[in-house]
Amino acid sequence: MVRITRVYTGTGDKGETSLVDGSRRSKADIRLEAVGTCDELNALFGLCLMEIGRLPKHGDGGSRSTVQRVQSIAHQTLPRIQNELFDLGAELACPPSQIPEQMAVLSDNQASTLIDEMDAWLEQLEPLTSFILPSGQGPEAVIHLARTVTRRLERTVLRLAESEGEGAVRPIVLVYLNRLSDWLFVFGRWVCLKLGNDEALWMPLGRRGPESGAGSMIRKMNQNDDDFEQL
Question: N or C, which end of the chain is more exposed by having fewer CB within 10 Å?
Fold first, then answer.
């Protein structure tokens, strides 16, 4: 049982902190960067959960059953992954050889669950014919942000493994993060579909035509503002 009576200790005032095994490291250490990025990603999952929870369940046409489905799935999956990310952060806070025996760590089961959920969503999704811009009309925009931070965490963990050498990170950690990024991509698409939103598709430069910018529109707006003030 965890019992925290005081958050501040003063032991980190000089820019150092303790790993799980008690050893001290700089807060700028790459292992601590991985732990911090994992915490950042966990907070983004909380933001995704909040945005999905804010979706209106009723519209002009009555109850929106699709919103309720999205909320139901989100409340079943996102908190579970938040707990897994907390487990992962604790694991990253020490070399694998120093993980306490009583600490539960991620396994193939968690990665397999992500795959199973992705497969279930993909049964309803049309194949992509273009790349998707990280945008959206609803919570899918935040889901895309979480996806990009997952990739950053993956890169950080990989740098940690390359920096500290063999045995610095368990292989399943990189597998899990790779699956999680894909999971977020598919989840974002599924949410977009269920909410009836349009995906923002990337259009190659050669097909976008001339781009003169919005300067003329801005100046026209400015002129309209000046004309209005003179009335």
Answer: N
For position 57, which CATH number holds?
1.20.1200.10
Residue 29 is given by DSSP the state S
The angle, 0 to 180 degrees and rounded to 10, between the axes of the packed helices 140-164 and 30-53 is: 170
With a CB cutoff of 8 Å and minimum separation 6, the contacts of 164 are 30, 31, 95
Residue 214 domain-assigned (yes or no): no
| CA distance linking residue 80 with residue 150, whole number of Å | 16
Q: Specify if 105 maps to a domain.
A: yes
Residue ranges of the chain whose pLDDT lies below 70: 1-14, 16-28, 59-63, 227-228, 230-231
Indicate whether 6 belongs to any domain.
no
Dihedral angle, C-alpha 198, 201, 206, 212, nearest 10 °: 60
Residue 224 in domain: no
| Phi, psi at 217, each rounded to 5° | -65, -40
pTM of the model: 0.84
Residue 188 lies in domain? 16-204
Domain total in the chain: 1
82 alpha-carbon distance from chain centroid: 10
Of 97, 55, 98, residue with least CA distance to 196: 55
State whether the Cα torsion 148-149-154-156 is positive or negative.
positive
Predicted confidence (pLDDT) per residue in 27-86, tens digit? 668 989 999 999 999 999 999 999 999 998 776 554 578 999 999 999 999 999 999 999
User: Facing residues of 24 across strands?
Assistant: 18
